[in-house]
Amino acid sequence: MDEPAAKTLVPPRPNPGPEPLVEPAIGLPQVAAVALGLLVLAILGTWLLRRRDRARGGPSPAGAADAFDDSPSGRVAVLALRARQSLASRFGPQLHARTTEEIALDDRLREALGPDRMGPLLLLLEAADRCKFAPARSPDDDATLEEHLLGWTSLAESLHNGQVKAAARSSDPPPRHRS
Predict the structure, then answer these.
(1) pTM of this structure
(2) Contact 130/137 with Cβ under 8 angstroms?
(3) Whole-number Cα distances in Å, 126 to 44, 67, 112
(4) Cα(78)–Cα(64) distance, rounded to whole angstroms?
(5) How far apart (Å, rounded) are the C-alpha atoms in residues 62 and 68?
(6) Deepest of 58, 74, 105, 128, by most Cβ within 10 A of its Cβ?
(7) Residue 20 has what pLDDT?
(8) What's the Cα-to-Cα distance from 57 to each of 38, 50, 93, 147, rounded to whole Å?
(9) Where are the bilayer-spanning segments (predicted)?
(10) Which residue in 83, 105, 107, 87 sits closest to 156, CA to CA?
(11) Cα separation of 155 and 149, whole Å?
(12) pLDDT band (50, 70, 90) for residue 44
């Protein structure tokens, strides 16, 4: 019988493994570019925040008077806007976003103004809401607004001049009772 010819065994080639990674060195130009980019982003962010804060401030009382006419309803709307701005300067800008009903339920505001000023303030804000959101009114409504305008004007001026109880102006939190 024929025997097959013997084959030569060839050992496998050695595996040199993965090639080593060459990490690029970070040089001064790359660091400067990243720093410059961060500086530009910081300046742009600051500018946008300041621009947003200025726009959020709302119109000034002098500019608000131009937005309304000289009718009783226009004057009521201006007085209400001035009263809200005066209160927001003392109690925080979130007061601009509150509805009249939310202002009526604020105990801190009620305590600071007292019942003799809180009542007329709420009447003023409610009348301004009716003037702004229900423009179809009867002529009797203007006469009613005229009757209250003098009192509301003095209320808005007293709020603007800062005649609020000392408790409202205190920025200290109320003392805690220890048990």
Answers:
(1) 0.49
(2) yes
(3) 42, 19, 20
(4) 6
(5) 11
(6) 128
(7) 81
(8) 29, 11, 8, 32
(9) 26-49
(10) 83
(11) 10
(12) very high
Parse the chain into domains and list their residue ranges: 61-166
Coil, helix or strand at residue 70: coil
Asked whether the beta carbons of 71 and 142 are under 8 A apart, the reply is yes
CA 20/CA 155 separation, integer angstroms: 81
Instruction: Give long-range contacts, CB 8 A cutoff, 24+ apart: 60-65.
Output: 61/85, 61/160
Q: How many angstroms from the chain centroid is the CA of residue 75?
A: 27
Name the DSSP letter for residue 71.
S
Higher pLDDT, 155 or 113: 113
- Residue at token pair 């701005």: 85
Task: Read off the pLDDT of residues 49-65 as tens digits, 9 standing for 90 and up.
Answer: 888 877 665 444 444 44
Residue 114 vs residues 26, 108, 121, 163: alpha-carbon distances, Å: 67, 10, 11, 11
Does position 116 have pLDDT exceeding 50, yes or no? yes
